[in-house]
Fold this protein.
Amino acid sequence: MIIDQLILHDFGQYGGRVVVDLTPPSPEQPIILFGGLNGAGKTTLLDAIQLCLFGPLARSSRREGVSYEQYLDGSIHRGNGANSATIELRFRHMSHGEEQLYHVKRSWRRTPKSCKDQLEVVRNHRFDAMATEHWAEQVEEFLPSRIAHLFLFDGEQIEAYADPRSSSGLIETAVYNLLGLDLVEKLGSDLSVIERRRRMEARPQEEQDQLKVLELRREELRDRIEVVHAEHAKREAELGRIASLRTRLEERFRKEGGHLYERRGELERTLSTADAQFRATERALRDAAAGASPLLLVLPLLQRTAKQVRAESASAQALATDKLLSQRDADIVETIAKQKPSSDLLKSLTDFLRDDRAKRRDSVEIPRLGVSDLGRERLRELTDEELDAARAMLPSLLDDQHSAWIALEDARNQVAAVPTAEALTALSAERDELIAREAVMQTEQKAEGEQLDRLRRDLERAQTEISRFTADDKEAQLAQDDRSRVLLHISKVRDTLDKFRDAVIRRHLVRIEALVLDSFQQLLRKKTLVVNLRIDPESFQLALTGRDGNPLPPDRLSAGERQLLATSVLWGLARASGRPLPMVIDTPLGRLDSSHRRRLVTHYFPLASHQVILLSTDEEISGGYFEALKPFVGRVYHLQFHEERGTTSVEPGYFSEPGTISESAYVG
């Protein structure tokens, strides 16, 4: 199947008639790339394709529990007073070896009473009344609605499938639909209905009426569970989108200094503490400066002074000694003279003593400072003790002051970087609103989860009551009649269906596992991260095996790797369908990081299908990603929203890029 053209008339944001050609110009360029800002109408294109093909069964992103007629009414463009809308889809499909050309047109008009759509199918340029009347069955032949979500999907919703529990539900649904086992389940359910009716035929009318009431209650519960489950799933997807928006908003808030603004009290306290510490180091230095520390500047002079003082002290002691020696020498000479020695001996002794005293006087320093004994002792304490202690203490004080100064400057810079409240008003209000929305939705989701649990318990009780009513307590009476034979065969058929379902699942899961694993390994940057993949045939949970041969729980993968795993599941299931169908992907890159984005751009989009329609924002496929994808792109379009007219136009070019990648491509 190849989609050649999409035509919109007053649908959603698209006012008037808009024609978009989607034919890939060559097999080597299968990608049709749309670029548009949020709100420009990318998702509207995806909704239009699904609505045109499937009508009430379309999985529209904006239906949100409203009736089909209400959804149609809300989809009519409101910018030019229009009261009707039309979607047309031209595509080709091979059937029995021949190419069939289809032109499907779905239109509706708003009336006071209702808003019902009309369908017209033209095949091979001729109106086909049979196809128009039975289009719901016709479209199932080439694009079954039950597997359409494998080919037409919103990339942001892939994030929900990254949760192993969600992915198991996706795999189970896809496997049942791909293998037609949903029909087997329906047949089993129908057999159960027939069985109950047969068993109840032998019961009193009163019990049959009670059973009908119980069955009606059970169906109501099932319908209610389906509605609540759908709302719960949409809420979960919306929470994922809000989480993505909040992440981007938090990043903007951080870049604008919002994290500093939120910590302004803490930062101001830090600044106050740093200032106090710096002032304390200054006081310690001033105290040191008030003591002996400044004398370190003249330490050599003090040392020379101390030396001079010691010399003068020694000289004073020498002079005092000279006086004593003069008296002693006179006594010695006098004593010896009484002994009447020779005159030569007496003269020699007298000369020796005189010369000795003269030598001692020659070494005496002339007093210049005249320092007292107390001053001399104070000078010794200063040079030998106090200045040594000051010299050891000052480096530590200076280091403390330098560290305190650095901390003070850093605190001052952080406080100076705190933006004003006015600068963050808009961002803060938007973030607070988003947080409030998220909290409300989480509360609603929790309430819906609790409601689902209650409804399922009620359904289980209703089923138990039905089983009690239909218990075969009259087997002996029914053994010989026709009802007995029917019930016996129903039981056998049901057992056969169960065995058939299990056998089909186990047989085909091997091929699906191989395709999903191959898809995952093509997308992974770490080629040997996962060496094997298995799908449990009972729970449909994924089981991964790491390079070491041990189980690798999916929650041990990074967020990007889990999203690639979810994409691989979709890709593998689409390949398993064996149907050559176009792939339409809205918001294709989601919240992936740069390395994982590049793997999708280079290893998935060019190979996903023979026709791939990508609906991207300017923050997804841009720059290097666009250049890497460019060789595979056949057409590029820019969705330009015109605020003054309230409409979106489809223009050639991808933002600033030219509109035609290949010369054979054209814009309708």
About this structure: Residues 472-480, 659-668 have pLDDT under 50 and may be disordered.
